[in-house]
């Protein structure tokens, strides 16, 4: 038996940059690389390792079961909003603007927006789920810099001080999921715009640059949370703000923007997005405009892009400045959310679209062919006050024909028969639907119609929403 004493400490494995495995009286001592330590730290929440903390660190809120996990407080609480008692999280420290958000699971979702000021302006609404609808922690809120400056890089998340259509869409989606007892998502929202005077400028302007940074910030936030990033949709509206483009230029410009956004998403490892828009039918005084007519082509041909018009704007009330009222903003968000939810769940969604106007054998009758999700309905109650012609009229009619009857065709439920007192005649004779109406003073857009399909939704504003037909200007053949 050796009389050599057993050493109390020593080195078993040594590398070029120092000791790797040693020992002392307490046992083995390991020195791990920084990458290994980081990997272990990232797994600790999943392994259930957490440090319990006094709820007082969160302030005077109704919170309990506070733990520190991955440099964040994770806790249960009863906070303002309709979400009820849930888990929340708040960064302990952050370079951006740390804030409490609902604890997300499954994925971090997003609803982005790009367009003119009417689409992206902040609104004075209270969210029903304020901790589930968030934005980048750059202190810019839901509307970004609105083209006045460039957005900053951040992975922090922040609650919203104001709302846009996109955040209202997100809030509506969360509300519907709660009503259906489904998992409640956390949805990132940011709407970007600038002062472009035409759609070609918007495609290369600061609004697009800021959208690029917002998408990167969203992806960074998802990565920090350890969740996959998933985009529900991109709101895209730039119409009456365009004072320079022809119909062809506007149509070309909208495709360039969608191409650029798709490239951006691809670069960030995101799926090709769904674009959603309300078909702009004008204001109380603007009932005809290049962009009103240009949108029609997009309603039936969006090329390789996933694009949907959720509703025509003639169904929504306006304030005295021609902007949607607060109730109208909620109704628009409800229609947008219906389209986004349906198409993200591989269902179908489209408003009725009119495609072709042609004469019948009887020259006093014009057949207007269209397509819809369900049978056409000419609403006999005429809630939008479109009149006996149901929103139809002729352009360039030298004969002065008067529409005396409008009815859904018996032989095709997606055709409308328009009967006149005499044959309409004229060079470039055009059948208009919800375009070119006289100015209004009843708080609704000048353009209006009575044609819809059978879908409906009871709005939380108290009215019943329908998928009304989109405006159209059809040459008569």
Automatic annotation (TrEMBL):
This is Uncharacterized protein. The lineage of its organism: Bacteria, Pseudomonadati, Pseudomonadota, Alphaproteobacteria, Rhodobacterales.
């Amino acid at each position: 038996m050796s009389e050599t004493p057993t050493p109390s400490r020593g080195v078993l494995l040594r590398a070029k940059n120092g000791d790797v495995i040693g020992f002392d009286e307490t046992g083995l001592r390991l020195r791990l690389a920084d990458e290994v330590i980081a990997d272990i730290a990232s797994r600790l929440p999943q392994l259930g390792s957490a440090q319990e903390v006094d709820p007082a660190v969160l302030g005077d809120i109704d919170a309990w079961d506070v733990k520190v996990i991955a440099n964040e407080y994770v806790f249960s609480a009863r906070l303002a909003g309709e979400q009820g008692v849930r888990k929340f999280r708040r960064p302990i420290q952050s370079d951006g603007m740390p804030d409490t958000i609902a604890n997300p699971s499954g994925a971090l979702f997003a609803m982005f927006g790009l367009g003119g000021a009417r689409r992206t302006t902040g609104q004075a609404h209270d969210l029903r789920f304020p901790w589930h609808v968030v934005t980048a922690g750059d202190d810019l809120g839901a509307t970004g810099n609105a083209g006045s400056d460039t957005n900053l890089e951040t992975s922090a998340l922040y609650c919203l001080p104001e709302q846009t259509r996109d955040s209202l869409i997100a809030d509506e989606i969360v509300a519907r999921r709660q009503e259906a007892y489904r998992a409640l998502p956390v949805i990132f929202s940011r709407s970007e715009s600038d002062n472009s005077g035409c759609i070609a400028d918007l495609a290369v302007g600061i609004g697009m640059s800021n959208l690029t940074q917002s998408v990167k910030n969203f992806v960074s936030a998802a990565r920090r949370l350890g969740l996959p990033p998933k985009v529900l949709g991109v709101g895209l509206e730039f119409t009456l703000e365009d004072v320079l483009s022809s119909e062809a230029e506007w149509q070309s410009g909208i495709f360039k923007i969608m191409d650029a956004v798709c490239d951006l998403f691809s670069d960030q490892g995101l799926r090709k997005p769904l674009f959603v828009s309300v078909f702009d039918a004008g204001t109380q005084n603007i009932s005809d405009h290049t962009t009103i007519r240009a949108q029609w082509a997009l309603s039936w041909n969006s090329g390789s892009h996933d694009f949907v018009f959720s509703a025509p704007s003639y169904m929504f009330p306006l304030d005295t400045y021609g902007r949607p009222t607060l109730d109208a903003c909620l109704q628009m968000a409800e229609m947008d959310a219906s389209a986004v939810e349906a198409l993200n769940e591989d269902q179908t969604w489209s408003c009725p679209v009119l495609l072709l106007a042609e004469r019948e054998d009887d020259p006093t009758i014009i057949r207007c062919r269209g397509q819809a999700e369900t049978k056409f309905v000419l609403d006999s109650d005429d809630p939008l006050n479109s009149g006996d012609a149901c929103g139809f009229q002729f352009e360039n009619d030298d004969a002065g024909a008067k529409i005396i009857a409008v009815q859904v065709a018996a032989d095709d439920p997606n055709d409308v028969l328009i009967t006149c007192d005499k044959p309409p005649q004229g060079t470039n004779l055009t059948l208009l639907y919800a375009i070119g109406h006289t100015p209004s003073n009843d708080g609704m857009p000048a353009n209006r119609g009575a044609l819809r399909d059978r879908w409906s939704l009871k709005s939380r504003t108290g009215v019943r929403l329908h998928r009304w037909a989109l405006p159209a200007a059809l040459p008569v053949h």
